[in-house]
Amino acid sequence: MLYSAFLAFSSLAATRAALTYKGADWSSVIVEENAGISYTSTSGTTQSLEQILADSGVNTARQRVWVNPSDGNYNLDYSLKLAKRAKAAGLGVYVDFHYSDTWADPSHQTIPSGWPTDIDSLSWQVYNYTLDASNQFAAAGISPSIVSIGNEIRVGLLWPTGKTNNFDNIAQILHSAAWGVKDSDLTTQPRIMVHLDNGWDWETQKWFYESVLAPGTFITSDFDMMGVSYYPFYNAGATLSSLKTSLTNMANTWGKEIVVAETNWPTSCTSPQFAFPSDLKSIPFSAEGQTTFLQEVAAIVAGVKNGNGLFYWEPAWMDNQGLGSSCESNTMFSVSKFQILHFD
């Protein structure tokens, strides 16, 4: 099926030049193409998704990596194929290691099958896996701009060993992951990111970073970026105001680069499960609303010290348009029309 874009990456106006990374997570594009889905630009021309994104001002493609998924989708080989396509289109690559065989998020952080569970062996496994994966990117001629060592790890990673009842273990795992990147054959050092969800919640961000840095194993020089997910449809407290406060405090406290690593806005949401935040209620559920929402978020990121990037999560996953939310569609394509928000 042919899908046309209404991708909302255009009118970033005063904020666009300040954002170093202007991106989209396109992890599912090969899955979609294998299902017979193709994409057209705003002019109606059938093009590869990477070309549509690049022409719209996106400069970095984010892609998740699972260790040993049952169907092979999102594994390292899959990610290398994506990375080569991104590079050919002139896009930077942001690698998001989940350290799991499937989704890693606040509800799931399962150790990959066959990996050890004792902390020393697990940390060594994480180091070697990350080192090998980084070396495979290097061998393919890909130098990722960003590498995330875990995905939405507010509740830890690699459960049960890396749960938040043992921050010593989490610190050891993250230190091992970071040095797997640093010790690799990559000629250009990627920016290493720690990524948490609920980016609007300063108290949660503060608790996590204070806790994970306290043991002294994982130290501030191990990583460069603090990434957050910011979704407006899961909690009425996720206001723009709260996001600004949280990102500002994070930047001022630890001096790291700040990136909104995942965000969405719906084009259709007839029965939201949760109330939308008060300072977002005036934004319509539409392509135009996506534009307004991204402008607002981009302005907040650009206004924060070291605010460097904004990524829209899976704008072209047409077989999953709700993108995990209670809204009918958060994607930026439809059967009939496409509007892409230019990042350049």
Structural topology:
Layout lengths: L1 E4 L7 H4 L4 E5 L3 H6 L3 E3 L5 E2 L1 H7 L4 E6 L10 H13 L3 E6 L21 H21 L6 E4 L17 H16 L8 E6 L5 H12 L11 E6 L9 H15 L2 E7 L23 H17 L3 E7 L19 E2 L10
Can you walk through the features of this model?
This protein is an alpha/beta fold and 344 residues long. The chain is built from nine helices and twelve strands. The chain has helices at 13-16, 29-34, 49-55, 76-88, 119-139, 167-182, 202-213, 240-254, 287-303; strands at 2-5, 21-25, 38-40, 46-47, 60-65, 92-97, 146-149, 191-196, 225-230, 257-263, 307-313, 333-334. An eight-stranded parallel beta barrel has the order 2-5-6-7-8-9-10-11, surrounded by four helices. Strand 8, helix 7 (202-213) and strand 9 form a beta-alpha-beta unit. The chain is globular, with a radius of gyration of 19 Å. The two termini are 29 Å apart.
How would you state the average pLDDT, rounded? 91
Uncertain spans: 11-15, 336-344
Taken from the alpha-carbon principal axes, the silhouette is: globular
According to DSSP, the number of beta strands is 12
Please give the count of helices.
Answer: 9
Roughly what fraction of the amino acids lie in strands?
15-25%
Spatial extent as radius of gyration:
19 Å
Structural class of the secondary structure composition? alpha/beta
User: Strand order across the biggest sheet?
Assistant: 2-5-6-7-8-9-10-11
The succession of helices and strands, N to C, reads: EHEHEEHEHEHEHEHEHEHEE
Helix proportion of residues, in percent? 25-40%
Report, as a whole number of angstroms, the end-to-end distance. 29 Å
Biggest sheet: strands, sense, closure? 8 strands, parallel, barrel
